[in-house]
């Protein structure tokens, strides 16, 4: 228990500026995807599984298809994606 606070911080990956920047980018991107394409697409875009209860009941009722996730990626990058939906429902 004799470690200093700065020693503990150096060993904690969450205090690393690169990790923090990556986490902020992930949050920003997933927020944008959710706002523009919905919760199910953002969940799939993030690679979250449908198992478990961490998403609550919403995951029971909503699903994102691969074309919807590809459309989100295409919109975010400004590049076309061959699997992206090109038309509405």
Estimated helix fraction: 55-70%
Beta percentage is under 5%
User: Terminal Cα separation, in Å?
Assistant: 60 Å
Shape: globular
Tally of DSSP helical segments? 5
Count of spatially separate domains: 1
Total number of strands? 0
Query: Helices and strands: which structural class?
Result: mainly alpha
Mean pLDDT: 74
Rg from alpha-carbon coordinates:
18 Å
The main pleated sheet reads as: none
Taking pLDDT < 50 over at least 5 consecutive residues as the criterion, the unreliable ranges are none
Order of helices and strands: HHHHH
List the helices and strands and how they pair.
Elements: H1 5-11, H2 17-37, H3 39-45, H4 58-61, H5 66-77
Helix pairs in contact: 2-3, 2-5, 3-5
